[in-house]
Design brief:
Layout: E1 7-17, E2 20-30, E3 33-38, E4 47-51, E5 58-66, E6 69-74, H1 80-105
Antiparallel strand pairs: 1-2, 1-4, 2-3, 3-6, 4-5, 5-6
Length: about 110
């Protein structure tokens, strides 16, 4: 099987499992999974919901763990086009916010 295209990102997120949410940071994304950092302990095989601004909530299973890093396998994969569009829109939002912050900060 060919390796999926992985996009390096830096998206704050929330990971929910068993009704409890924890903060997370998504560090890479592919059509069928994600790598993220989270202080909360999650078990391999555990079903979680991953939420980040600009993306629909994603249901996934923990595929691997190397605490504080985790790998997720999405239950429903993204098409490459959908993933690229969501990431581009999300990064556009982030860079627009950064530009706004710089504009506010400068005299």
């Amino acid at each position: 099987a060919r390796r999926q295209l992985r996009l390096r990102v830096h998206f704050p997120a929330a990971v929910s499992a068993d009704g409890e949410a924890a903060g997370a940071l998504i560090t890479d994304l592919s059509q069928n999974g994600a790598r993220f950092e989270c202080e909360r302990h999650l078990a391999v095989g555990q079903r979680v919901k991953l939420e980040t601004e600009g993306f629909p909530p994603v249901i996934a299973r923990v595929a691997w763990r190397s605490s504080p890093e985790y790998g997720l396998a999405f239950e429903e994969v993204f098409t490459l086009e959908a993933l690229a569009r969501l990431v581009a829109e999300r990064q556009g939002v982030a860079s627009a916010q950064a530009t706004e912050m710089q504009a506010v900060a400068s005299p």
